[in-house]
Design goal:
Blueprint (H helix, E strand, L loop, with lengths): L4 H16 L3 H7 L4 E10 L5 E12 L5 E7 L5 H17 L5 E7 L8 H15 L8 E5 L5 H15 L20 H19 L8 E5 L3 H12 L3 E9 L2 E6 L6 H6 L11 E3 L1 H5 L5 E4 L8 H6 L4 E3 L8 H10 L2 E3 L1 H4 L2 H15 L5 H26 L3 H19 L5
Helix pairs in contact: 1-2, 1-3, 1-15, 3-15, 4-5, 6-7, 6-13, 6-14, 13-14, 14-15
Bound molecules: nicotinamide-adenine-dinucleotide.
Catalytic activity: L-glutamate + NAD(+) + H2O = 2-oxoglutarate + NH4(+) + NADH + H(+)
GO molecular function, one term: glutamate dehydrogenase (NAD+) activity
Keywords: NAD, Nucleotide-binding, Oxidoreductase
Length: about 425
């Protein structure tokens, strides 16, 4: 396994093409991005000096629709990372039948060290540099790590001013008052609960009797807990950072979302809880483990501790390649991030649809449509997994590459 994410992404495409026995042109086209634009963004800093920041935007493959993907603002963002992330977005969109290609953006900057004025210039400068390559039917960015809804609002405004027209659908992840969708905030966590219920059924587990442990009580983890509870499952443990360190709370009868919300940052003070260290958390005897905090949380060592039969990847890339190999050997089913946490991109798609129509849906309509789409994707991938006798993750890649290859064939891009 390389530590270059782009090479890893290429290897995943290659391995899926090999299993599917696709014609050579499929890998030849999918092994690199269709376009990668690099811009230099000048910002007049508050001290009067000018600093330039690197900005990137990659479109991996647009056979299924306009490029779609977040903008990551982080000092360690690299050219190759942005390309790799755009490849994974192609898979993520295709796997749920969301009509987009893979895209991703990046700005090499530490947003926590910039003032509001500097961030606004950065956001507007990014759009000015990339204007020609963005658009409702060309490439539709969204927020990612380090990019707030406020930054997206400045970007949309800059784009609309340059275009001389209202084009809210050029970006998603907007605040609801400025064309965002109801349901977007809870969509990723909600989707995780839907996938949890579906996979439990395959293991003959009644979800009402299922026990879960959740790592991370941020946006994704907390909403996952909320909907697990609504579906009748029992969340027995939650792990989070606290001022005095990282620990988990455990209660056999489970927690309600409401009490966890009310005790954010002070879980230790809750009644009737057992405090666990991270090792004990990962070793819990629960049915489903949900890493919903950050990438690379479960490596080889942690994977050996896990007793759950099912791991739902709520975060992006929480299981390392080595951790994945341990799970495969131990027969533990890992439901991959590109399906499990795809609720966010699905509702981004609904935001775009609502912007294009100028007609807005209720939260109930949004979540019902999301649920239907995710169940359909789950069933398709399960069938692929059974047909090819591969892991859930491999099945998700096979499924999405096949969809892209089929359309490229119709478009005459293949031999
Ligand atoms: P967030 O910042 O709201 O929440 C992350 C939480 O995890 C924080 O509360 C943090 O304190 C906690 N945390 C960090 N390290 C931890 C550790 N070692 N153990 C336990 N808790 C820890 O972020 P989020 O939006 O919930 O995103 C979480 C993950 O899901 C990320 O990988 C993100 O890329 C991915 N994701 C998010 C969305 C979305 O819609 N927000 C969509 C798809 C994927």
């Amino acid at each position: 396994m390389s530590n270059n994410s782009f090479i890893n992404a290429q290897q995943q495409v290659e391995s899926a093409c090999r299993i599917l026995n696709t014609e050579p042109a499929v890998f030849e086209i999918l092994k690199d991005v269709e376009r990668m634009i690099e811009v230099s963004i000048p910002v007049k800093m508050d001290d009067g000096t000018i600093r330039t920041f690197k900005g990137y935007r990659a479109a991996h493959n647009t056979s299924l629709g306009p490029a779609k993907g977040g903008i990551r603002i982080h000092p360690a963002t690299t050219y190759d990372d942005v390309k790799a992330l755009s490849i994974w977005m192609t898979f993520k969109c295709a796997v749920t039948g969301t009509p987009y290609g893979g895209g991703k953006g990046g700005i090499v900057a530490d947003p926590t060290k910039l003032s509001e004025n500097e961030l606004e210039q950065l956001a507007r400068g990014y759009v000015r540099g990339l204007y020609k390559y963005l658009g409702e039917k060309i490439d539709v960015p969204a927020p990612d790590v380090g990019c707030s809804a406020q930054m997206i609002s400045w970007m949309v405004d800059e784009y609309c001013q340059l275009a001389g027209t209202q084009a809210l659908g050029t970006f998603t992840g907007k605040p609801v008052e400025y064309g965002g969708s109801l349901g977007r905030t809870e969509s990723t966590g909600f989707g995780i609960s839907v996938i949890g219920r579906q996979v439990a059924k395959k293991f003959d587990i009644h979800f009402e009797e299922a026990t879960l442990a959740v790592q991370g009580f941020g946006n994704v983890g907390s909403h996952a807990v909320k909907y697990f509870e609504q579906l009748g499952a029992t969340v027995q443990a939650v792990m989070e950072w606290h001022p005095d360190g990282l620990f988990a709370i455990y209660r056999e009868e489970g927690f309600t979302y409401e009490e966890l919300e009310a005790n954010r940052g002070k879980f230790k003070e809750m009644d009737n809880v057992k405090i666990l260290n991270p090792e004990d958390f990962w070793s819990l005897d629960v049915d489903i483990m949900v890493p919903a905090a950050l990438a690379n949380a479960i490596d080889e060592r942690v994977a050996k501790l896990v007793k759950a039969n099912i791991v739902l990847e709520g975060a992006n890339g929480p299981v390392t390649t080595e951790g994945d190999a341990v799970f495969k050997e131990r027969g533990i089913t890992v439901v991959p991030d590109i399906l499990t946490n795809s609720g966010g991109v699905i509702v981004s798609y609904y935001e775009w649809v609502q912007n294009l129509q100028g007609f807005y849906w209720t939260e109930k309509e949004v979540l019902e449509r999301q649920e239907e789409k995710m169940i359909q994707a789950f069933d398709e991938i399960w069938d692929t997994k059974e047909k090819h006798d591969v892991t859930f993750r491999e099945a998700a890649y096979l499924n999405s590459i096949q969809k892209v290859a089929d359309v490229m064939k119709l478009q005459g891009k293949l031999s």
